């Protein structure tokens, strides 16, 4: 285990996972990645609500207070001014061999706390993007939730890292844009925002939700959730993406297309930073 990482399994410090575990065997579980700043986790309610929706979709029993207890335990182990990432993983726990879920199900919760070197109050430089050759599979029953099956993202990351870019756009089987590998994508077209609807695949991000519900409305921006083609992205006035650790990040390049100015992206970033400061008590 790295020195800058601490792991708890069901509330106890551990460097190993009890076996068998259905998360390892079948990807039978969910996870949340939380940003920790100044002893607090911003937009914690959004993470909790998405996790609860995922638990219901996978027919897990409710966690009760276990999620909040795991977050509190992690926060108590950090220095007050520390910046960290907290991954909460919930698996269906142990069970007999085979796909049939055990009855009763006793979920297992793993909390993994890792230090971060980034400054959460500094906007990241505009990113260079490629288009991934890997297309996401469609599965409406799993769309939106953050389940453990991330092999598509593993392979896509390997591909774009080899191209020396920061991220990659991922499309579905029909060639429509879904997201970037680790975040949600938005296109600015004539003063309005467009983002994929995520009906068939993709993760409904917490920062995506906040952008739609909070930051865009404050600026008088309309957000359209609909099918979005790669051509529409290339023709857009601006592109940006968001995730829980980077916040909002403008796009400087997608393939051969470049953007030199990002006025609406920067305005949205300022809304994000203002909310972040308030949510962590600064």
Automatic annotation (TrEMBL):
<comment type="subunit">
    <text>Homodimer.</text>
</comment>
<dbReference type="GO" id="GO:0046656">
    <property type="term" value="P:folic acid biosynthetic process"/>
</dbReference>
<keyword id="KW-0289">Folate biosynthesis</keyword>
<comment type="function">
    <text>Involved in the biosynthesis of p-aminobenzoate (PABA), a precursor of tetrahydrofolate. Converts 4-amino-4-deoxychorismate into 4-aminobenzoate (PABA) and pyruvate.</text>
</comment>
<keyword id="KW-0456">Lyase</keyword>
<dbReference type="GO" id="GO:0008696">
    <property type="term" value="F:4-amino-4-deoxychorismate lyase activity"/>
</dbReference>
<dbReference type="GO" id="GO:0005829">
    <property type="term" value="C:cytosol"/>
</dbReference>
<dbReference type="InterPro" id="IPR050571">
    <property type="entry name" value="Class-IV_PLP-Dep_Aminotrnsfr"/>
</dbReference>
<dbReference type="GO" id="GO:0008153">
    <property type="term" value="P:4-aminobenzoate biosynthetic process"/>
</dbReference>
<dbReference type="InterPro" id="IPR036038">
    <property type="entry name" value="Aminotransferase-like"/>
</dbReference>
<dbReference type="Pfam" id="PF01063">
    <property type="entry name" value="Aminotran_4"/>
</dbReference>
<dbReference type="InterPro" id="IPR017824">
    <property type="entry name" value="Aminodeoxychorismate_lyase_IV"/>
</dbReference>
<dbReference type="GO" id="GO:0030170">
    <property type="term" value="F:pyridoxal phosphate binding"/>
</dbReference>
<keyword id="KW-0663">Pyridoxal phosphate</keyword>
<dbReference type="InterPro" id="IPR043132">
    <property type="entry name" value="BCAT-like_C"/>
</dbReference>
<dbReference type="InterPro" id="IPR043131">
    <property type="entry name" value="BCAT-like_N"/>
</dbReference>
<dbReference type="InterPro" id="IPR001544">
    <property type="entry name" value="Aminotrans_IV"/>
</dbReference>
<comment type="similarity">
    <text>Belongs to the class-IV pyridoxal-phosphate-dependent aminotransferase family.</text>
</comment>
<comment type="pathway">
    <text>Cofactor biosynthesis; tetrahydrofolate biosynthesis; 4-aminobenzoate from chorismate: step 2/2.</text>
</comment>
<protein>
    <recommendedName>
        <fullName>Aminodeoxychorismate lyase</fullName>
        <ecNumber>4.1.3.38</ecNumber>
    </recommendedName>
</protein>
